[in-house]
Amino acid sequence: MKKVMSLVLALVLVALASAVIADEGKVLNIWCWNDEFQSRFNDYYPGVAEIAADKSTTTLKNGVVVNWIINPNADNNYQNKLDEQLDKQFEGQLADDEKIDIFLIEADYALKYVADEASLDVRADIGLTDADLADQYDYTQKIASADGVLKGVTWQATPGLFAYRRSIAKDVLGTDDPAAVQEALSDWDKFNAVAEQAAAKGYKMLSGYDDSYRTFSNNVSAPWVSGDTVTVDPNLMKWVEQTKEFTDKGYNNKTSLWSAEWAADQSAEGKVFGFFYSTWGINFTLVGNAGEAGFGDWAVCYGPQPYYWGGTWICAANGTDNVETIKDVMLALSTDKDILKKITLDTQDYTNSISGMSEIANDPAFGSDFLGGQNHVALFLEAAQKIDMSNISAYDQGCNEKFQQAFKNYFDGNATFDEAKAAFETAIKEQYPVITTVVWPE
């Protein structure tokens, strides 16, 4: 009798599972701005069955076809198109197979989407549990939460370090040992003193104006905006002061982030001591810019202050008909320790598993050839524990971008300090009409 009941129960469960699958949409539309997540998905999601030759679609084992809709970030293109499609979805203008199912967001504008009904609750709507999420870094959840509701998950954690040229460190400091270099750069006064030493040897401490910005902006004492008022934090004015001094004294190369000149400063011919980089920056950007000649000539240390930079979050769009598939994707790519460890071991990216990263950090066999055998995961592990997300706001992207833009003419001597301040006030009020007041430190 028990066997018959068990068989009946099994058949019922199979029928229920089949019903769930039948209710699932057959198309999963994923919106993103580049192919990074597409690569992670195709390489590591266990549900992948087939990838189209042109990579435009991915067919899953459950029969769902993934469409990759990639709109580059430049000039806010990705957000503009995403917003337009989400509005149509919310207004019921899209057929099921046209709807966004998953969309990706970055930290700088995460609150814009997680505080909005465009995204679904990862727990209540998608079905992930506290136990599922327990091994993720807390800060990665805070970035994608609004009013305590988690709206996105990520496979990455992105603590930052200071990457430096070993050969230049030896010439300037007499050593390239990460512990010794860290001691020499452990606060901003020491950092500035090394910049002076580097200049005396014919080197630049930093490449350009933006390199140290996030280390300062991640250590502010309050959010950018309260009500209708923008408050410029004293720590941001320390960045202005340092960058102006570095520019006037020749301690930087007057480049801008992502420019060809900035990238060239990371090559073997470059004369720059180091760069502030987070996890993805080292293994994707720096390795490529440094080239083969750079392998073994770089190392990392903590630098003057802890910070983070970047990261990509997976959000489920309100209106999706693929909840079960999305749940499986989120579980596999943001909570499965074995998958996350494999991503790190294969790509040296730092992933969102505290226990998994601890295991790699304590593995004596693990090291980066590019970093001369150094186990950078061990440093990232410690740096990640110090990330403070208490002062993020929905205005971070615009405020940070407009602030840096406003002061570039000042650094170059093409505007006075007061003119730069006025330029920021004008720009930020145009960007966010709700802002009526800008308060500066005394």
Estimate what percentage of residues fall within beta strands: 5-15%
> What are the low-pLDDT stretches, counting only 5+ consecutive residues below 50?
1-22
CATH class of the largest domain: Alpha Beta
CATH architecture of the largest domain: 3-Layer(aba) Sandwich
Total helices: the number is: 20
E-strand count: 16
Structural class of the secondary elements? alpha/beta
- Into how many domains do the coordinates divide? 2
How many angstroms does the end-to-end distance come to? 82 Å
Largest sheet: 6 strands, mixed
* Rg: 24 Å
Q: Could you give me the name of the CATH homologous superfamily of the largest domain?
A: Periplasmic binding protein-like II
Mean pLDDT: 94
What global shape is seen?
globular
* CATH topology label of the largest domain: D-Maltodextrin-Binding Protein, domain 2
Strand order in the largest sheet: 2-3-4-1-5-15
Estimated helix fraction = 40-55%
